[in-house]
Amino acid sequence: MTGTRPSPIFVADSIALDFLNSIATPVDVPVEWLASGEDLLDWLTRAQLVPPDIISSLRQSALPGELDATAGQARALREWFRGFVLTHRGRHLKSVALEQLRPLNRVLERDEQYSQIVKPAGSGNPAGRRPLSLRSQRRWRSADVLLIPIAWAMADLVCNADFAQIKACQGSICTLLFLDRTRGRARRWCSMAVCGNRAKQAAHRKRSRKD
Questions:
Q1: DSSP letters of the chain?
Q2: Shortest CA distance to 155 belongs to which of 199, 120, 197, 106?
Q3: What is the dihedral of CA 149, 54, 6, 1, to 10 degrees?
Q4: Where in the chain are the domains?
Q5: β-pairing, 133-138 with 113-118?
Q6: What number does CATH give the domain 15-92+99-109+142-210?
Q7: Which pLDDT tens digits describe the chain residue by residue (211 residues)?
């Protein structure tokens, strides 16, 4: 990671699209937030996709180069999914797209998720509260399991979001994608504070030149 690089951007209203935005041109030059294994750990931590104790454990147990190799796999998964999203965005996803999702299903089938009966978080057992609950767990045997929560986020977008709501920021050089859940689907910018404000300033300068 570099000291001059901005923090990862989370403006898409979808973790899967935020993952696609982990390489982007938000201002004037492209920024890559997954250049190394440490970058991947940082992004997953900020996205709250992997518990901090798991991040710490994998950082300590990974073999030399293992995390960097996983980051390379993450970048490859990202660019494959970008192609899928760009192909289908702007219209409702059809079931025939399932055939194109084989690479994602291959990642998902590697998941070692299971359930455990546990005590609910918190102290005591207030009236009416069940004394035990079922909690989902995952075995994190190697660094490449870090791809699983990313794949889950992608699957959630595919199965539960409307691809007709996926848009690209209208900023002249911005490459960020987002899910437009606004009333009337009126969102145009990744952020009003950045691209929206830049567009307003450009429009103001254009009007001033005409006066």
A1: --TTSPPPP--SSSHHHHHHTTEE-SSSS-EES-SSHHHHHHHHHHTT-S-HHHHHHHHHHPPTTHHHHHHHHHHHHHHHHHHHHHHHTTSPPPGGGGGGGHHHHHHHTT--EEEEEEPPSSSS--TT--S-EEEEEE---SGGGGHHHHHHHHHHHHHHS-GGGEEE--SSS---EEE--SGGG----S-IIIIIHHHHHHHHHHHHHH-
A2: 106
A3: -120
A4: 15-92+99-109+142-210
A5: antiparallel
A6: 1.10.3300
A7: 445 788 999 999 999 999 999 999 877 789 999 999 999 999 999 999 999 999 999 999 999 999 999 999 999 999 999 999 999 999 999 999 999 999 999 999 999 999 999 988 765 666 567 889 999 999 999 999 999 999 999 999 999 999 999 999 998 788 899 999 998 888 998 886 668 566 555 554 555 556 5
28 exposure class (CB count in 10 Å sphere: 0-12, 13-18, 19+): exposed
Distance, CA of 197 to CA of 100 (rounded, Å): 38
pLDDT digits (tens, 9 = 90+) for 26-47: 777 899 999 999 999 999 999 9
The sign of the dihedral angle between the CA atoms of 105, 11, 197, 2 is: negative
Nearest to 75 by CA among 33, 105, 31: 33
Give the CA distances from residue 46 to residues 6, 55, 115, 144, in Å, rounded to whole numbers and listed in that order.
13, 11, 25, 18
